[in-house]
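--- STAGE predict ---
source: upstream dedup step, 1 unique chain passed
mode: sequence only
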Amino acid sequence: MQNSVTYTKNIELAYSCDIAVAGGGIAGVCAAIAAAKHGASVILVERFGIPGGNATSGGVAAFCGENAGQGAVFDEISAMLETLHAIGPYTPYPKDNRKFNHELLPFVLNSLLEKYQVRLLYHTRVADCIVEDGQITHLIISGPSGMQAIGAGYVIDCTGDACVARAAGFRVMKGRESDGMQLPMSEMFFVRHQTSAQCVPEGLLARIKDQDELPMTSIWPNGPGGNAIKVKIPKFDATDTESLTAAEIFARKRALQVTEYFKTVEGREWMFDRCSPIIGIREGARILGDCVLAVDDLRKGRQFGDAVAVGYYCLDGHSPDDDKRTYILPKDELAVPPYHIPLRCLIARDGKNLMMAGRCLSADQLALSSARVMTTCAMTGQAAGMACAFASAEKTEVRKICVSALQNALTENGAVLAIGRFN
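--- STAGE serialize ---
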């Protein structure tokens, strides 16, 4: 039986730019805006019709970690949310989880992307890329217009799943070393408070009968008369088509089961409203960089000479083996001091012009469990965008730019790189 095909097609070279950013989550938005603010022409490719990633499409309406000192782009996002009365007050880390309105955040991000003249391609995915001697020359995209090509001088992979790197054949890391199991996903869904809420008829889904059967569940307010619910969904692979499909099906069933438990067992007057359009993915694939950030670097609060971002968040690595509130590490080992993220963790080792930001940065799994939060993603995104803009202006590889000049520019653009700042 034939197990492969050869496919050849002439594709329109529809776009060209200095920097192409793949993935419009917080990291991608901050990368695109930062690059555009520093004179580069930028195209942002996003698979959904709105930017924000897990913060918007995923329904995760909280900025975890330190919210101050994450860079001018993140500051501008926060300021605009404040103007709209769509974000809670700032408190220094570890009093974090700054709640915001995830339905208004897309308006804020779109407004800023338009302000800085980032060209947006929504409902579009990176399907492939053309690589010549380690240089990505073109991205092959697939959107409503069909398959097209983008010619780009530099590429930043902010997909979270290392989609560009994997298409280019560059090395990636995934899951824990022993078996490749990833940090568990979460299903975000929403309920309304309604006294006449209908129950799901018996026989349509298995019932959760008591708290021992309940998966890890987090509940927080979601506007007047509503709640947001997060449920742990383990043992699926975010980088595998069939596994991610199965995860989405299972997670939506789980959301109904959890809702029914709270109604029938705990007596809450909840009506199931909706699920986020995509399951929340904590770990897809991490791109092998010039440096791999290790969990011991975090524990020691390690400083790097080429630091471009600072992480603060705890080692939030939930066990991938079960759906309970269990951690990979003992709870007394989760806290870490502020730590540096070096530029080398944002440069793909196998490429000449590929950078990454957000949760596909070069790190081991436990280091990622901290660095994946949106505040840190914003900081790495701004750093990658500015680094590419510097390299583009100098017509050189990112590895060859002046790191101290980049650090000075990051500091001038609101990034606090001194790890003692919030101790």
